[in-house]
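FORM 7B: Structural annotation worksheet

SECTION A. Query
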Amino acid sequence: MLPHARTGVHVLSAHAVIRRLIRSSGVGPDDLVIDFGAGPGTITAPLAATGARVLAVERDVAFVHRLTRRFADQPLVKVVHADLRTVPLPGRDFSVVANIPFALSTVLLRRLLNRRRRSLAAADLVVEWGFAQRIVAARTPETAKWSEKYELRVAGRIRRTDFRPVPRVDSAHLVIRRRGRE
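SECTION B. Predicted structure
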């Protein structure tokens, strides 16, 4: 068993899926984008290649050291040793492209979508398949409020075999776009 298999860390290893996430996000030069749960940087590196400013947020100290070494010579990448539940969010417009920890999906969506200041412009998230289905179909007061400000949709299914180690369930590419975005 891989060391992170017991901790729930599942690294997205399918390059085609990563390219689709980044292409969907539309991030480019001068954009600010956050990779929550950056892990070894499998999404961070291609994000940096777009010319965007990337905040690689990671809680695990071993991954933080690995990311710091990997991106030491890339000024557009800032590695942030923090928990996605408490890290301060930017005051300016930003996007998120990330394979987030499944257990923290609801917490992160609430942090991003319940803010008074609508600085989240867009998000392309890898989340558990069932969670994504529930979010886009739900008719709760909370999701109704989110839908007033943001479009939420599932762009596609991501096979469980696209991760290392392989999780028990498939994932989804959840797309979030701020309504009225220029």
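SECTION C. Observations
The longest strand covers residues 120-128. The helical segments are 15-25, 44-48, 61-70, 105-113, 129-137, 141-149.

SECTION D. Sign-off
Analyst initials: ____
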